[in-house]
Amino acid sequence: MSAQVLIAVLLGLAATAEDLWRRNISNWIPLSALLAGFLWHVSQQGWSGVLTAAVGAGAGFLIFLVFYLLGGMGGGDVKLMAGFGALLGLSRLIEAALWTAIIGAVLAALVIAASSLRRWVRKDAAQKPLAIPYAPAITAGVWLSLVPR
Question: Which helix (H) or strand (E) holds 137?
Fold first, then answer.
């Protein structure tokens, strides 16, 4: 297992656990991913790795910033994807974002179905809107993008 994969696994587990239990992603997690991404790419590519990590981080930030501005995602999710973008670089980040969108859509459909079933069984029309922790989808998307082909 490469250092890049190990970092993605450890930080992904930390982000997922915290998002599920606290509904928050501490700043140390995306910051660690960002720093590790720069160090990883510099160790692999020399100083040109700085550009690879910076472009990945910027793209990760911008892709998810749109959803944050539309109210569909929290700031921690945006920072997490920026950190993972630095770790992955642009090409793998695009793949990770696509996997994340697919997994997020499946999770959202499951939550909506469960909520509808609960409302139907309880005949309870008044329920607050559900917010779905997105770090599990981001983590799974990142992990899938790192699977060798």
Answer: helix 135-145
Q: Two tokens at 11? A: 């930080």
d(CA 139, CA 24): 14
**Is the Cβ–Cβ distance between 142 and 11 less than 8 Å?**
no
103: helix, strand or coil: helix
> Rounded to two decimals, what is the model's pTM?
0.90
**What residues contact residue 30 under an 8 Å CB cut-off, 6+ apart?**
15, 76, 79, 80, 82, 83, 84
Is residue 38 within 8 Å of residue 86, measured between CB atoms?
yes
Token couple for 127: 């329920």
Residue-level pLDDT at 128: 64
Of 11, 1, 6, which Cα lies nearest the Cα of 138? 11
Cα 84 to chain centroid distance, Å, stands at 7
